[in-house]
């Protein structure tokens, strides 16, 4: 289903465990079941899927109070509702917290999505974060070197103080991990809880002049840049090493 562009690998597994996937009329009950969309009849929620069709790559400025998903069981607004005029079924590349805003990619390219969100890919994500209080140089150093969280120490990051704002401050944080609520937990750990969070860049793709709720189609150069990052990550894993912490799309 990932290759067909119907869902990311993680989302596809959820669809299977929920009993929503059928192959040749029979429900799929085991993860890892193989099927060929060119030969087999694959249905999700009663809809026939195909491996054919153009790939679509979208940059959305995700507003707050939206879920980074295709559907939400609680009926909350989801990011795909903001993408008007796109006929293909698309899904978000990874997640951005409900109360966070900023760069979010959406596509129907499941293979690229899986590569970009794989933990070993180490794709750089840049956040502009408003925190309570004023972090000092030691706090910034701790963020950069790594802090200990419940699920382990964070990888080295880039951190810098941007400016003070009354009783709060703005910092910029670049991380290469995809743990849940990572930025919030890192800031909480140094004693400066997050008041607002905005992702300004993902895998070299910047928010630019987009406003909350606006989107645009990625340029050919940007898509090629993302695919180049994917290939770099694959080669690095094959060598047993790590890919670069940050890559930029061609301009």
Automatic annotation (TrEMBL):
Residue ranges occupied by any Pseudouridine synthase RsuA/RluA-like domain in the UniProt entry: 57-188
Keywords attached to this entry: Isomerase, RNA-binding
GO biological process: pseudouridine synthesis; rRNA processing
Pfam families (alphabetical): PseudoU_synth_2, S4
Top EC class, one word: isomerase
PROSITE patterns in the cross-refs: PSI_RSU, S4
Presence of keyword Repeat: no
Residues in RNA-binding S4 domain copies: 1-35
UniProt EC number: 5.4.99.22
GO CC annotation: cytosol
Molecular-function annotations in GO: 23S rRNA pseudouridine(2605) synthase activity; RNA binding
Family classification: Belongs to the pseudouridine synthase RsuA family.
Record NCBIfam families: pseudouridine synthase
Protein name: Ribosomal large subunit pseudouridine synthase B
């Amino acid at each position: 289903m990932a290759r067909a562009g119907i869902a990311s690998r993680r989302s596809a597994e959820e669809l299977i465990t929920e009993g929503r996937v059928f192959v040749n009329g029979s429900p799929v009950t085991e993860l890892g079941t193989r099927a060929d969309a060119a030969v087999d009849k694959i249905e999700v929620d009663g809809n026939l899927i195909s491996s054919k069709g153009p790939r679509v790559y979208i940059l959305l400025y995700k507003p707050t109070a939206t879920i980074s998903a295709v559907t939400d069981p609680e009926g909350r607004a989801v990011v795909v509702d903001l993408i008007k005029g796109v006929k293909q079924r698309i899904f978000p590349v990874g997640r951005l917290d409900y109360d966070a805003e900023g760069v979010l990619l959406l596509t129907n390219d499941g293979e690229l999505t899986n590569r970009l969100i794989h933990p070993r890919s180490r794709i750089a994500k840049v956040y502009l974060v408003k925190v309570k209080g004023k972090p000092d140089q030691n706090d910034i150093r701790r963020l950069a070197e790594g802090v200990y969280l419940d699920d382990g120490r964070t990888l080295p990051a880039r951190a810098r103080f941007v400016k003070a704002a009354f009783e709060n401050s703005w910092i910029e944080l670049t991380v290469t991990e995809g743990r849940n609520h990572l930025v919030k937990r890192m800031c909480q750990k140094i004693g400066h809880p997050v008041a607002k969070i905005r992702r300004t860049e993902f895998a070299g793709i910047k928010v630019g002049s987009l406003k909350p709720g606006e989107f645009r189609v990625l340029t050919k150069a940007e898509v090629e840049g993302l695919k180049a990052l994917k290939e770099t990550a694959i080669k690095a894993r094959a060598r047993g090493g790590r890919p670069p912490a940050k890559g930029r799309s061609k301009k």
